[in-house]
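Thread title: Can someone regenerate the structure for this chain?

I was given the following input by a collaborator and told the matching structure tokens would be attached. They weren't. Posting the sequence so someone can regenerate them.
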Amino acid sequence: MNNQFDIIIVGSGVMGCATAAYLLRMDNRLRVAIIEKDPTYRRASTILSDGNVRVQFNLKENIQISQYGNEVLKTFAQDMAVGDKIPYVDARYQGNLFMVDENGRAEAEQGLQLQQSLGCNVEWLSASEIEAAYPFYKTMGCIGGTLGHEDGSVDPNAVLMGYKDKAIASGAQFIQGEVTNLLADGRQMRGVQLASGDKVMSETVLNAAGAWARDLALTVGVDLPVLPIMRQVYIAETHFEPDGFLPSIFLPTGLYAIHENGGHFLIGKSLPDDPVGFDFSVNQQRFVDLLWPELVDYLPAFERLKITGGWAGLYAVNTLDGNAILGEWPELRGLYLANGFSGHGFQQCHAVGRYLAELILDKDPALDLSVFTPQRILDNKPIFENVHRLI
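Best answer:
Regenerated them for you:
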């Protein structure tokens, strides 16, 4: 195995593979290694994502990231095709409907104004307009909601495999192995060590290890405010089947329901006592006790349903401010970070992959994402998205 590279990427989830693909698009002479401990992706956050994408953010850069992602997805199948392998991402823009109560009015109005100023197709619907357009949804004291027509669902596996196959076809070397330690010499990165004892060397290493990012960074004394927090998604079958696709509904409490097809929905909610750690168990009783009663208030037809499946995955939660940590760690040259996405990493892979490739290659960024600099961790200066929209 070649053990000397220009760039090492730890983690072959969508963030790592997108960055590799962009690096090699910018310079196909680069020696890029992608190291992955589990190529089956059984517990990878990318594969376990519910695939939702949205432009409805309250931070300009997050909106612009999503806008770029939507542009990429339009030609993704053609651009990422490798021979006869064509990644069909099955993009479905049924819309996201964020219900707004009085407590969330100011943030919703602020976000809507910013989104519209950036050219996003998002509109305000009053409570009566929501119930008239979508009789299945009840507003239950909400004053209205914002409907993003450019929001929807995408197949995470197709996006991941598209970037992975393109990166490998462009020259990236895929190495199966578990990185146990980052290797540094003073203030300079030198490479990584695998569980096998092998060392893979480079002065540029990208930590794209998702929920495992903090443990990895600690091996060189970098303490990231990133925790692995388990989230559960339930698959529910209802007795009613709407015509066409309903917009996904997001309640002020964080509970959401994504219409998949017919009478099938994906349902989830981030709860305060969600386990911290590497827990992948699914507890259906939590749905019955905590989610179902609230769901029925807003969607009365859900009073009769059957849970037909579900899964648990990990959010890599940035406990400082819930936003991505992107770029080179200020105190260690060559250590680049793509961490702490807090549940919206999948949809941000396109712009983030391009941005990290630009930083690593010292190119002027097409989209300035320096607001997400790791320096803010050292300075303890959070940049908050908002309080009420938690997915």
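The longest strand covers residues 305-318.
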